[in-house]
Amino acid sequence: MLELTEIEKICTLALIHTPGIGAVTIRQLISYCGGAEKVFQADFKKLINIPGIGEKVVRAILCKESLGFAEKEFTSCKNSATHLHFFTDPTYPARLKPLYDSPIVLYSRGDFDFNMTRTVGIVGTRQVSDYGKSVTETIVKELEPYNALVVSGLAFGVDITAHRACLKYNMPTIGVMASGLDVIYPSSHKKTASEMQENGGLVTENALATKPDFMRFPARNRIIAGLSDVTIVVESARKGGSLITVEFAQNYHRDVYAVPGMLGSVHSEGCNFLIRDNKASIFTSVGDMAKAMGWEQNGSEPEPVRMVQMQTSFEGFTQDEGQILALLKQKGTMQVDELAWQAGMHLNKLAALLLNLEFQGMVRSMPGKKYGLI
Q1: Is 228 among the domain residues?
Q2: Same domain membership, residue 172 and residue 41
Q3: In which element (H, E) is residue 83 found?
Q4: Strands 105-111, 83-86: pairing kind
Q5: Which of 55, 155, 209, 236 could form a disulfide with 242 if both were Cys (CB 3.0 to 4.6 A apart)?
Q6: Confidence (pLDDT) at 1
Q7: Backbone φ and ψ of 60, nearest 5°
Q8: Are residues 132 and 227 located together in one domain of the fold?
């Protein structure tokens, strides 16, 4: 995909901060209009005819009040070495791209590659025991030969233990935050957060100056799960953020491991129950996990994760998706109405399929309700 223009980025930020509009609606708007800038250029009649877009949302867009905020936000990011990764950008994490609830934009600071070949999420309780700290550091140390990127949440307990172990063993690590990048929470982790940016960094979906409200932590956890090939729960009570991360990982069809703990230990109840209920594999060592994942130590590395490339056979796609891809391959570019007629599909169904294929990097939307292959 091509890098978005500056005005397109500003308009996308404006949509994110338009009241009553979520990620799914933004994708719908951009898909139908051919770009974020085109959304703000559209009139009432065009917007109201987009499936799933109500009058309240249309009027919020037409007010254009969020454009001023978006311009300031974009400038602030440029002036503070903050990188913006929009969902249609080539820098956007490939692992998040196909997920139904992936963020429209990610903010990042530091030096790292979202698309490293192997990523491991390490999560757990804030009240970590000495045993949990020891296990966390051992996991990081044993991951070093596998050239993995460690993902966690910069929180007290297991999270910060994992990040600091990565610094100790010179492992790349990123902290996914529930606040803006300029609001380090907890504040006692500022030094570690700064050091992480030398070989890793910080990531969030929240605008600068955003406070870490309670509701933002579950949303943060879905990003940890989405960025990770495998999530390891070191210690967890029966309820907590770690188990929310596990739920997201399972929904994304990612591997989950749990470190078994002593019976009766409050800190290990969550892990033990995950293992008992077959919601997580039992973690015994990084070596055992790597074997199950098909990883090799210091061997020939496969290519880093990238967006799926076009296949002439369209294997791995549904029959409907394959039909759309075949038509676009044959015709080059097609308008939505013509594509719906040729495929014999209702426009609502076609729009959903095109959106999914766009997230997978297979098709791109163009002005005039046209689509073509990447």
Answers
A1: yes
A2: no
A3: strand 83-86
A4: antiparallel
A5: 236
A6: 45
A7: -65, -40
A8: yes
